[in-house]
Amino acid sequence: MMHSMGADPRCDACQAPVVTGPEGGYVCGQCWHLVEPPGYEEQRAKGLARARAKREARTAARRAAQQHS
Ligand SMILES: [Zn+2]
Fold first, then answer.
1. Is the whole model's pTM more than 0.85, yes or no?
2. Alpha carbon of 20 to ligand 1 centroid (Å)
3. Does 43 share its domain with 69?
4. Phi, psi (5° rounding) for residue 35?
5. Are 27 and 14 in contact (CB under 8 A)?
6. Count of CB atoms within 10 A of residue 28's CB?
7. Which end of the chain lies in a sparser environment, N or C, as judged by fewer CB atoms within 10 Å?
8. Which distant-in-sequence residues (6+ apart) come within 8 Å of 34 by Cβ?
9. How far apart, in whole angstroms, are the C-alpha atoms of residue 12 and residue 39?
């Protein structure tokens, strides 16, 4: 009997059965091959951009405060 694709997720690297997370990513229990969920890179990039903007705003505020004292 053939398995249908998607119903039985397997590791890309070693073909061991894997359990995918809610967002579609998994870490293989056999070889530790890591697959990140779709959109993960994009979300991480957004998060980094947000953190950088926050840090820059804080730096600018501190600089402005020093100039006024
Ligand atoms: Zn594997």
1. no
2. 13
3. yes
4. -120, 120
5. no
6. 19
7. N
8. 25, 26, 27, 28
9. 18
Interval between CA 69 and ligand 1 midpoint (Å): 60
25-39 tens-digit pLDDT: 999 999 999 999 888
Domain count, the chain: 2
Matching residue, tokens 């870490």: 27
Q: How far is the CA of 32 from the centre of ligand 1 (A)?
A: 6
Expressed in angstroms and rounded, the spacing between residue 36 Cα and the centre of ligand 1 is 14
All residues with CB under 5 Å from ion ligand 1: 11, 13-14, 16, 28, 30-31, 33
- The reply to whether 24 falls in a domain is yes
Same domain, yes or no: 17 and 29: yes
pLDDT, tens only, 4-17: 555 789 999 999 99
Domain span at residue 23?
Answer: 8-38
